[in-house]
Amino acid sequence: KSSGRGTYRRFNVAMHAQLQAHQQIKIALRGALERNEFELHYQPLVSLRSRRVTGCEALLRWRSPERGMISPSEFIPIAEETGLIVPMGEWILAQACRQAARWPEHVSIAVNLSPVQFKHRNLVKTVADALSASGLAPARLQVEITESVLLDESEHNLHVLQELRGLGVKIAMDDFGTGYSSLGYLRSFPFDKIKVDQAFVRDLPHGKESLAIVRAVAGLGESLGITTTIEGIETEDQLAIVNAEGFHEVQGYIFSRPLPASEVSKLINGQL
Length: 272
Ligand code: C2E
Ligand code: MG
Ligand code: MG
Ligand code: MG
Description:
This protein has 11 helices and 10 strands. The termini are far apart. It has helices spanning 2-29, 72-82, 85-100, 115-118, 123-134, 148-151, 154-167, 182-188, 208-224, 236-244, 261-270, and strands spanning 38-47, 53-64, 68-70, 108-112, 141-145, 170-176, 193-196, 227-231, 249-251, 259-260. Bound molecules: ligand C2E and magnesium ion (3 copies). One magnesium ion binds at residues 174-175, 195, 197, 231. The site of one magnesium ion has 2 residues, from loops.
């Protein structure tokens, strides 16, 4: 009984610490945009056929003076909860398009969109403004959404996706395979790209189930005419498998980690 009570107490202490961290991040996040604490890093996407960089994904970084580098998986959920993701998302789109406009024309830019951004009427205008301010050709911008965008308020969100598509922007489904009913969503919207989540890569080359799923998605992409990308490739063994299965594109530490703008530009220009 006494040990039970001790466990409960430890649990409480841990919960309290977590809650406190959450609160602190929430407070620090307010004004972080104005204080210029955000930065975009860019991770190359490499075509398996040409072995060249075909695009980069913009990944948000937060350098907090008090807390150091904070991972997006820690602060994006809080930014979503507070609605701060909306002005942050505008900055991300503008910044990413401006950066990509300096790259060679065959290199595209992928930007992650939060489901919360879809709740705001001006998402389409935000995207259109980022394109016109930067002069980036719309077809060079890919927006990445997760299944949750089609989960709630799907009618409205589908309409927004259609409007984005109308601008000439490409639409990618991110983290494919981790949501609820992936396959059905491929019927509700004609995605340009499927990005398989890194969860399916981790246990390759030995995981039978992962291999079967990876193979099925490559086949699905082939028959639906959708570009297939796989994230989180770290080893030569993993690369060999996804190459053999017919994926079009990979993203992962084996080629490059996400890099600051100046470094990714060097990498892109170095292969010209
Ligand atoms: P995501 O969009 O699925 O991005 C891929 C994540 O996988 C990135 O983590 C990237 O650094 C990581 N990654 C890439 N290759 C490898 C690899 O070979 N091995 C391993 N272990 N990891 C790899 P990151 O940058 O920490 O971002 C995490 C998530 O945060 C993103 O997942 C995305 O959902 C969200 N996020 C990041 N930037 C933004 C943004 O600008 N806006 C929104 N709304 N969400 C963002
Ligand atoms: Mg992504
Ligand atoms: Mg992903
Ligand atoms: Mg992910």
